[in-house]
């Protein structure tokens, strides 16, 4: 089984970047693991967790966010050989616990259109699909060139 711990940049950065590359790819410069990690670490909100296997290898991640009302779950990833072993559930439960303790009243997450296979996973954890339109806007001035 895995141990869930807070992300530590000096210990976990390279392994998280490798896991995210394997699980998510990098559709755009704004999703480059190094940039995402740097932005999250700068927030210093204690909502970034990793799952470490018995051999010390990093095998999963989950990031959360909180704006004082709603919480978010981002970047849940579990290494392919370690899926369906409860690691994703444990990571989600850890983020949920921190958000609950902070007074969060609702947690949101988004699933990419091409990743519908995880819907059942989230439904088992109590999440439901909601009638929403997700919109976004990229702010290119905050994305370093050359990454």
Protein model, in words:
The chain has 147 residues and is α+β, with helices and mostly antiparallel strands. Helix content is 33%, strand content 21%. It has four helices and five strands. It has helices spanning 9-24, 33-43, 87-101, 119-124, and strands at 3-6, 48-52, 58-66, 70-78, 106-109. The termini are far apart.
Notable traits:
21% strand, 147 residues, single chain, Aminopeptidase, alpha+beta, globular
What is the mean predicted local confidence, pLDDT? 93
Largest sheet composition: 5 strands, mixed
Strand order of the largest sheet: 1-2-3-4-5
Distance between the termini: 35 Å
Helix vs. strand class: alpha+beta
**What is the H-and-E element order?**
EHHEEEHEH
Q: What is CATH's topology name?
A: Aminopeptidase
Please give the radius of gyration in angstroms.
15 Å
CATH architecture: 3-Layer(aba) Sandwich
**Percent of residues in helices:** 25-40%
- So how many helices? 4
Q: Just give the CATH class.
A: Alpha Beta
Question: Which of globular, elongated, flat, extended, rod-shaped describes the shape?
Answer: globular
Could you say how many structural domains there are in total? 1
What is shown here, in short?
The protein has one domain (3-142): Gcn5-related N-acetyltransferase (GNAT) (Aminopeptidase), CATH 3.40.630. Helix content is 33%, strand content 21%. The chain has 4 helices and 5 strands, in the order βααβββαβα.
Mind sketching the topology for me?
Layout: E1 3-6, H1 9-24, H2 33-43, E2 48-52, E3 58-66, E4 70-78, H3 87-101, E5 106-109, H4 119-124
Parallel strand pairs: 4-5
Antiparallel strand pairs: 1-2, 2-3, 3-4
Helix pairs in contact: 1-2
């Amino acid at each position: 089984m895995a141990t869930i711990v807070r992300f530590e940049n000096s210990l976990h950065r390279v392994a998280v970047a490798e896991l995210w590359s394997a699980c998510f790819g990098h559709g755009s410069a704004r999703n480059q693991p190094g940039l995402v990690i740097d932005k999250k670490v700068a927030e210093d909100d204690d909502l970034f967790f990793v799952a470490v296997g018995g051999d010390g290898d990093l095998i999963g991640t989950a990031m959360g966010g909180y704006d004082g009302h709603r919480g978010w779950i981002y970047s849940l990833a579990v290494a392919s050989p370690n899926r369906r072993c409860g690691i994703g559930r444990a990571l989600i439960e850890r983020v949920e616990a921190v958000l609950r303790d902070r007074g969060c009243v609702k947690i949101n997450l988004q699933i990419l259109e091409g990743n519908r296979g995880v819907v059942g996973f989230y439904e088992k954890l109590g999440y439901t699909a909601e009638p929403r339109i997700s919109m976004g806007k990229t702010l290119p001035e905050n994305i370093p060139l050359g990454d």
